[in-house]
Amino acid sequence: MNIALISPSLDQYSETFINAHKEFLKGKIFFYHNGELPTMLQGKPIIYGRQKRIKHILKGYYRLNDFTLEQEALLESFQVNKIDLVFAEYGSTGETVAELCEHLKIPLIVHFHGFDAHHQNQLIAYQSYKKLFRYASYVIVVSKKMKTDLINLGCPVEKIVYTVCGPRKEFFDITPDFSKPNFLSAGRFTDKKAPYYVILAFARVLKKLPHAKLIMAGEGELFNTCNNLIRYLRLEKNIKLVGSISPDELRKIMASSRAFIQHSLTTPEGNSEGTPVVITEAGAAGLPVIATAHAGIADVIRHNQTGLLSEEHNIDEMAANIILLASDADLAKKMGENAREIVLRDYTMDKHIAILNSAISKALS
């Protein structure tokens, strides 16, 4: 079984779920990338033969081409590699390749992740995914809100499969040290993750608990803004921005943290999360999660059981939640144990991959 796994980008450090799909989906994986209509296959350009390019140009003169040159190249690559099924990461990718899959009668599965299901500019640009919803065998969603939103856009409910991308097994091996009020936040520095709100909330925490520490990992367009905010508030000794880090480095920091913090929100353009993988990674590590009741986070985190949730934009409420766990290591440990138990039961990588492989088998049957 040959599967074309398509992603717009190659090895984005924050897209750990795509690497997991490359590694664990059954069948032989052909990884296409570099744009919604991919032009690369496993690091090499998809080349369309010289004679065929000339033929395409001649046909174009008489307006006889059904597809662009780039589409023709991808179609030929699918045929040469005897692709049995296309697995598209992101709705925009799925919409772009849907007509090609239909032309070759290849089953299509599309995995939505977050912004692709909610951002208004995306929905307008890709015509609310009409082709995708009509042709795809299955549409993968990662939160209950996403399921509702895609149904409202017109996706047939029988095509929707709900699954959360779980953590790798190494995260379950972490034994957190709850002895110090150290906290961790990790993710891209973007509007929907609102890292500046985490900083402002922690500034309130430090007025009561001046020895608390926060490490923030990740990169993005708001990184310098957040760095300047920390300097302005004179919090350099308590809040450290460490940039992008490896999974091993993330696990090391988790082992010395008391809780994980994230202030995700819905932007004015409608952009929002799916279910951030790092939320399940933190739970697997035995850390309680302090976050907003946003999108899939509210599906995974049980308030007062596995973590503490607050409303979006409410930094006072988030600060109070941080103070509560900073002041009570035993409570943090108990919530972390509960979080690990629930992630182990409901949100493992094995369960996620099994659901995807089942959808692949059904699409091919």
TrEMBL record:
Spans through the membrane: none
All residue ranges annotated as the Glycosyltransferase subfamily 4-like N-terminal domain in the record: 71-161
Keywords: Transferase
Example GO molecular function: glycosyltransferase activity
Region forming the signal peptide: none
Segments forming domain Glycosyl transferase family: 177-341
InterPro entries, A to Z: Glyco_trans_1, Glyco_trans_4-like_N
Record-linked Gene3D superfamilies: Glycogen Phosphorylase B (3.40.50.2000)
Domain of life according to the entry: Bacteria
PANTHER family associated with the record: GLYCOSYLTRANSFERASE (PTHR12526:SF630)
The protein, known as: Glycosyltransferase involved in cell wall biosynthesis
Origin species: Christiangramia gaetbulicola
